[in-house]
Amino acid sequence: MLSNTCKYAIRSVIYLSINAKEGKKIGIKKISEELEIPTPFLGKILQSLARQKLLTSTKGPHGGFGMGKDPSEITLMNIVEIVDGLDMFENCLIGIRPCKSDNKAQAACPVHNQFGHIRKQIYDLFKGKTIGQLITEMENTNEYITL
């Protein structure tokens, strides 16, 4: 459902939210090693999040990435929209155009009605769930969660 790029972005924001508090910066190599994401690929992901002000980016020997917003203000949808866009919420699941038609003579997508409900639930979840909430839920679980 989400691209690997988007999953990496979410994991990176969670990691930085936990480890880069109070203006602290973390170098890309450390983030890359900790999350096992190739450094050049991670750099592109983090820069796209920094351009949208979710993260901060500082160059130089003491540079790195930090949080641009409080984790309680960043929703999953913020990240999904930046990385993957909203296609999964706006376009047909199987690529039919138009997916749904007001013209009764024209057939609608065969999965439109069923997927529409699921799509709405996913949209609402992503829109309502913050990185701060995810971190709290991770901290409250007895299970070990690897980012």
UniProtKB/TrEMBL annotation:
Would you tell me the Gene Ontology cellular component terms?
cytosol
| Molecular function, one GO term | DNA-binding transcription factor activity
InterPro entries listed in its UniProt record: Tscrpt_reg_Rrf2, WH-like_DNA-bd_sf, WH_DNA-bd_sf
Which positions, given as ranges, span the membrane?
A: none
Q: Give the domain of life.
A: Bacteria
Against Gene3D superfamilies, the record matches this protein to:
Winged helix-like DNA-binding domain superfamily/Winged helix DNA-binding domain
Q: Which Pfam families match?
A: Rrf2
PANTHER family xrefs: HTH-TYPE TRANSCRIPTIONAL REGULATOR AQ_268-RELATED, WINGED HELIX-TURN-HELIX TRANSCRIPTIONAL REGULATOR, RRF2 FAMILY
Protein name in UniProt: Rrf2 family transcriptional regulator
**From which organism does this entry originate?**
Marinifilum breve
